[in-house]
């Protein structure tokens, strides 16, 4: 079975500051890793994913995450955040080739002006 | 291309009643999954359907059931509602099952049980 731990339930940062949202996972088999974002009163949107290949993956809006197999981590980073990044971020894992996602508890990112 | 559509968006029920939620996946997507989101338990997998067959089921009581139709639309039903069933129910669809959980989520159906 897979499990995901998001180490911070809330992360407040100032606008234009860098941010890191931490995610650790546990699995005995190969996994796919994902970050989803949820804006208020909306469903989840895929931010980025790691399936295989390069361990550094990037999104179109400046976020990046690095798969670290030895540390079983998939931390999400952005060098400079914007007010519009205020949302809840979920790290998720699935067994490679499977459909079921196991989510972390989420990290609420709050951007202060 | 239309996204995943869930109806109704909001509903209020009383304990003991039953509820049916509907999900229309993105055109061409054959896999539909359901998740329950609550402040206390977070996002939990309910079940997944592919080509009208339930392929995977989460750890929920038998009061929670679902089905998928030949056009890939899906419904989930909760019978004998309890206060703890109050949650946001999210439906997600997927095109390529071999790539794992690349899911596209709807905006959810928010159920309040009084």
In short:
The complex is a heterodimer of chains A (113) and B (114). Helix content of chain A is 0%, strand content 55%.
Helix/strand structural class of chain B: mainly beta
Number of helices of chain B: 0
Task: Determine Rg of chain A (CA atoms, Å).
Answer: 13 Å
The profile of the biggest β sheet of chain A is: 6 strands, mixed
Report strand % of chain A: over 45%
Distance between the termini of chain B: 37 Å
Question: Which stretches of chain A are low in confidence, meaning pLDDT under 50 for 5 or more residues running?
Answer: none
SSE ordering of chain A: EEEEEEEEEEEE
Biggest pleated-sheet summary of chain B = 7 strands, mixed
Average pLDDT number of chain B: 93
The number of helical runs of chain A is 0
Strand content of chain B: over 45%
What is the number of strand segments of chain A? 12
Instruction: Give the proportion of residues in helices of chain A.
Output: under 10%
Structural class of chain A: mainly beta
The 3D shape of chain A can be described as: globular
How many DSSP E strands of chain B? 11
Quaternary state, please? heterodimer
Largest interface: A-B, 26 and 28 residues
Describe the 3D structure.
The complex is a heterodimer of chains A (113) and B (114). Helix content of chain A is 0%, strand content 55%. By secondary structure, chain A is an all-beta fold. In chain A, the strands form 3 sheets. In chain A, strands 2, 5, 6, 10, 11 and 12 form a 6-stranded mixed sheet that branches. In chain A, strands 3-9-8-7 form a 4-stranded antiparallel sheet, with no helix packed on it. In chain A, strand 7 (56-58) and strand 8 (64-68) form a beta hairpin. Chain A is globular, with a radius of gyration of 13 Å. Chain A starts with a strand and ends with a strand. With 114 residues, chain B is mainly beta. In chain B, 0% of the residues lie in helices and 53% in strands. Chain B has strands at residues 5-7, 10-13, 19-24, 31-38, 42-50, 53-57, 64-68, 74-78, 87-94, 104-105, 109-113. In chain B, the strands form 2 sheets. In chain B, strands 2, 4, 5, 6, 9, 10 and 11 form a 7-stranded mixed sheet that branches. The radius of gyration of chain B is 13 Å and the shape is globular. Chain B starts with a strand and ends with a strand. The model of chain B has no long low-confidence stretch (mean pLDDT 93). The A-B interface holds A 32, 34, 36, 41-46, 49, 51, 90, 92, 94-106 and B 4, 31, 33, 35, 42-45, 48, 50, 55-56, 58, 90, 92, 94, 97-108.
